[in-house]
Write the structure tokens for this entry.
Amino acid sequence: MIFKTITLNNLFSYYGQIVFKLNDPKEEKNIIIITGRNGHGKTSFINSIKLLFSGSSEELRSRIPGSVKRITTTNYLLGFQGLWAGVFNRKARKEGQKKFYIQIEWEEEAGLVVAIREWVMSGDHDCQEYLKITSSFMKSAIEGSLAQEFLDERLPQDYIPFFYFDSEQIHKMIDISQNNLQKHMERLLNISQIETAREYIGKAESGWRKAAMVEKEKARLQEKQNELTGNKSSIAENNENKSFLEDKISDLEDEIEQVSNRLDRLRENSQIGDEKKLKEEQVVIKKEIEDLTLRIADILTEDTPLLFNTEIIRKVVGLNKAILESDMGTQSDLINSFIKTLPVILFDSPPFSDPSLSIYQTDFYKKRLIQLLEAYRPIHDRHKSLFYIDKRRAGQISDILMPYLSVDDRKNMLTEALKKMNRNKKRVVEINLRLDDIPGLSQQEKEEFEDTKRELAQKSEEKGEKEREIKEIGEKIKTFENEIK
């Protein structure tokens, strides 16, 4: 299966239709390397290929950053509670586009195959998935489950993580328990019988070696075996503690969700007449902040500092103009022209002297002529100005800087956008304070509200502490595993 083209449309960070054309492999060039800086779409590219072969699989959904559990296919595709932006490109979705897809064209022994997995929005919070495959060796296209079976025959689901993976995430594969990884590979490659034979041969070999050892070496071997057993026990114990903490975190997440819902109900019970309006305004302002962020990002470029330093630019342009218009600059250019042309005209162009000059004489008179001309070059008075360059350079600098003396529209747009962003952020803070104040609640309800807020903060802190403990346990396990190796 040799990929010919890969087409991404509105997937992850890829906006619009992007086509990757891959060259046919040659005997001396049969590898394609994908590189790029962090955040430039390498992982999105790999995950898009996985999406074609497996759809929004558990393996993809489980790699979402943050403590997200039981995420649905729709959540994965369209986003989840502010923690995950979704597969559908945000810019395309804001513009009202409805489709996003991945299409791959490949060559196999039977002929050419084109596979496309597409999603079409059906409402604001749902989408339909379509899978279709056409080929040069099938009479008609196949869709749905038949198409998935076709893909599974080429690349079974269990093989995908081993064929397409992000090298930056290779440490996550290394962190897998050795036993689990071995079982997984045995199942994929059907080599469990071979591994069993290897295990018994290893035990026999170990026994023969042990029998042949002297007593001192046997004692040292036994000591190391006890140490090895102790490390394995420590790993098992830490894995058990890690599993216990993960269960506690899962319970805490449920409790946090319940407390958050209770907090929302208390807010809803408030009799404040404008609470609904405040929340609606909050949504509108947050949308404006998001739009302003995109607008500011478009306006901000590498030359932005020049927009706000017009006085300095004006002074530099003025100094350049003085150089261009000065007699000293004109005289200097004339002398440079003489130095460049006169030696060539006098000594390298006919008519030549009779008798002719030797090479050494020609070089001597050329250098002598240049020295005489150099004596007429004007000397710049550095006491009058510390800024002086030749006229050609001065002209180039003026051409570059002149446009920045008339960019008021762009500067005003950026200034206004930043001011509006600042006002909106202040307004969001004000709205949050007013929503938390809830003056319409009774004293008892206010106390319950504050208690609930404290409970939510406490459980969130407890969850964070458990996550830190899990991280420490993971580091301990790595240490024991290194000692075992």
Notes: Strands lie at 2-11, 14-21, 99-108, 111-121, 127-135, 142-143. The two ends are 38 Å apart (CA to CA).
